[in-house]
Amino acid sequence: MRKFIIANWKCNPVTLASAKKLFISVQKGLKNAENSQVIICPPFVYLEELLKLRKKLKLGAQDCYWQEKGAFTGEISAVMLKNLECKYVILGHSERKAQETDKLVNQKIKSALKSGLEVILCIETISQLKHRLKGISKNNIEKILIAYEPPGAISTSGGKIPSNSHIIEKLKEIKKITNTFILYGGSVDSSNIERFMKLGFNGALVGAASLKAKEFIGIVQAVEDI
Ligand code: PGA
Predict the structure, then answer these.
(1) CA 119 to CA 115: how far, in whole Å?
(2) In 3, 59, 80, 190, which residue has its Cα 20 to 30 A from 222's Cα atom?
(3) pLDDT at position 24
(4) Which residue among 5, 8, 91, 184 is best mutated to probe the pocket of ligand 1, counting the most ligand atoms within 8 A of its Cβ?
C-alpha cells in the first residue's frame, strides 16, 4: 500500500531561518523512510528556499488560485507553483472555508490538474466531495489525494476525533465516489496515527504535530512500521 504523510505547516513558522531549520531536521530524521511519501507544505514564501534544500522530501503549497495569470492581487496561480517545481497543492482546507465556495475549490482543482500539480483535496463532508469533484474526469479524480478531516477534529478547532465506526462509515462513503488514496486529518500525532492507518487510510494530513520535528518523524516512523 502506498502511504502519504503530509505536513501542513499552515501560517508557521514566522522566519525563513526557522522554516529551514525545521525542514532540515525533518529531512535528516527521515533517512530510512522507504515506504511512505512525505510531503511538506510550508507557507508560499518559503517554498523556493526549501526546494533548494530538498533531497527526498516533496514540497507542496497550501492553496493556489484558479486563473493562470492576470489582475488578481495577492493570488498565486497553479502554473506558478508548477514552474517553481513545487509538486503538490492542498486545496479546500476547512480553515479557508469562510473565503471559499465548493465551486471555487472545484475551479482550483481543475486549474491545478491542468498545470500538472498533484492535488490534495481536503473535505469535511461527502457533499463537499461531490460538489468539488464536479465535471472532473474519472481518470483525473483517481489522481487526487483526498484528506478527510471531520468537522471539529482539527487540533486548534476543538480536536474531537469521532468514533472508529463513524470514521469507517465515512471512509466507505468516500470510496463509493473515488477509490484513490484517502488520508485522515485532524489532531493526528505519533500516538494515534496507527489507529487511522488500521482503519484503512493511506496516510495523514498533519497540522500542529508537523511543526515539531521529533513528533513528525515519530508519525512517519510509526507509518513505516505498520
Ligand atoms: P491538526 O491540523 O493536525 O493540527 O489537527 C490538521 C489540518 O488542519 O490539516
Answers:
(1) 11
(2) 59
(3) 97
(4) 8
CATH of the domain at 147: 3.20.20.70
Residue 10 grid cell: 499552515
Return the pLDDT at 113: 98
CB crowding 89-99: b at 16 or more within 10 Å, else e: bbbbbbbeeee
- Measured from CB, residues less than 6 Å from any atom of ligand 1 are 8, 149, 154-156, 185-188, 205-209
The half-sphere exposure of 53 on its side-chain side, counting CA atoms within 13 A, is 18
Q: Give the chain's domain count.
A: 1
Task: Name, in order, each residue with C-beta under 8 angstroms of 23's C-beta and a sequence gap of 6 or more.
Answer: 40, 42, 50, 53, 57
Upper half-sphere CA count for residue 212 (Cβ side, 13 Å):
9
CA of 142 to the centre of ligand 1 (A): 24
What pTM, to 2 d.p., does this model score? 0.96
Task: Provide Rg for the chain, Cα atoms.
Answer: 16
Active-site annotation, residues:
93, 149
Per cent of the chain over pLDDT 70 is 100
